[in-house]
């Protein structure tokens, strides 16, 4: 009987060895590609999460900023990287907008990546210069209809989330308002404060201090519910315009065929990080809302958003810079 038991245990050990050996081994620093310059929201979020992914694998996470091409340069590096777990990428809203905005891409958004986790969202606040005589979205739309083509909204550039939020407002409200693209969010905000444009959609962190000072007036926010950072600002749903829902997002993706066990470990590490009170407090401070979830849920979200923004881009006629 003892011999039979010993033989069974030996066979079980042999069978289990390949399973244990199948776990992806990470033996050098992990490269996290950020398709933007240092200092922005996508970069900041990547640096906050890096240490948690590092702890999971016992390897340093190195942030590699590869800006340009409406985020396609850095994203292409992820697509072409070896699927060995040594390279992952942080994406934002451009990932799901670019397929329709730019047309032909150097990669296939749906086929060349493995979704890892939706990290966070950043709702957008519609703000007007305090001299604009409106206090609600409906009043703004009424004013816009009384002055066709006279009101304007600024953005950080053609095809950005803040631009497309303005296109949603134009479509839903049935108003003729002019889009003024700038080379960044900072420039559009400066012009708004100076009264050169009427309104912008902006992140909470970008405009919170100006709203508090009274220089800008916040009309509504694109989040599904009111936020901790700006609890006095009503949602667009509360204002009667639920279809205005553009947000900026950040999530992690890996090259297609990256081992599933690695994807699950990164996903778990990020989800644990997002549950930490200090991380949640920091994200609120930066204007983010924590997300999380499974790789499958993130993949389904990506597919839905590509279809959604394709229609908005087509209907609005939005074009990327230089296109």
List the helices and strands and how they pair.
Elements: H1 2-21, E1 30-34, H2 41-57, E2 61-65, H3 72-80, E3 87-92, H4 94-101, E4 113-129, H5 137-146, E5 152-155, H6 161-173, E6 178-181, H7 185-193, E7 199-203, H8 204-213, E8 216-221, H9 236-239, E9 247-255, H10 260-275, H11 277-286, E10 289-290, H12 295-316
Parallel strand pairs: 1-2, 1-3, 5-6, 5-7
Antiparallel strand pairs: 3-9, 4-7, 4-8, 4-9, 4-10
Helix pairs in contact: 2-10, 4-12, 6-12
Summarize the structure.
The protein has twelve helices and ten strands. With about 325 residues, it is of the alpha/beta class. It starts with a helix and ends in a 7-residue tail after the last helix.
């Amino acid at each position: 009987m003892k011999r039979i038991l010993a033989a069974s245990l030996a066979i079980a050990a042999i069978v289990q060895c390949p399973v244990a050996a199948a776990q992806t081994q990470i033996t050098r620093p992990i490269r996290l590609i950020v398709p933007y310059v240092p200092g922005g929201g996508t970069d900041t979020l990547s640096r906050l999460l890096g240490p948690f992914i590092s702890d999971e694998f016992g390897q340093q996470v190195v942030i590699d900023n590869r800006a340009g091409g409406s985020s396609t340069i850095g994203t292409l590096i992820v697509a072409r990287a070896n699927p060995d777990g040594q390279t992952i990428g942080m994406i934002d809203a451009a990932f799901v907008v670019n397929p329709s905005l730019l047309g032909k891409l150097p990669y296939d958004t749906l086929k060349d990546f493995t979704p890892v986790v939706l990290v966070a969202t950043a709702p957008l606040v519609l703000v007007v210069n305090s001299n604009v005589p409106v206090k609600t979205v409906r009043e703004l739309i009424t004013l816009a209809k009384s002055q066709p083509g006279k009101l304007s909204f600024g953005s950080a550039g053609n095809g950005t989330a803040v631009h497309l939020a303005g296109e949603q407002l134009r479509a839903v409200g049935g108003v003729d308002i002019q889009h003024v693209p700038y080379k960044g969010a900072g420039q559009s905000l400066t012009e708004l404060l100076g009264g050169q444009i009427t309104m912008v959609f902006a992140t909470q962190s970008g405009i919170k201090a100006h709203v508090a000072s009274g220089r800008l007036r916040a009309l509504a926010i694109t989040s599904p519910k009111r936020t901790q950072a700006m609890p006095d600002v009503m949602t667009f749903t509360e204002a009667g315009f639920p279809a205005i829902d553009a947000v900026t997002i950040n999530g992690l993706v890996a090259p297609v065929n990256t081992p599933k066990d690695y994807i699950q470990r990164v996903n778990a590490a990020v989800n644990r990080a997002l549950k930490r009170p200090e991380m949640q407090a920091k994200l609120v401070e930066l204007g983010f809302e924590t997300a999380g979830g499974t790789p499958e849920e993130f993949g389904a979200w990506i597919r839905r958003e590509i279809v959604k923004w394709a229609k908005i881009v087509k209907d609005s006629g939005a074009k990327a810079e230089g296109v």
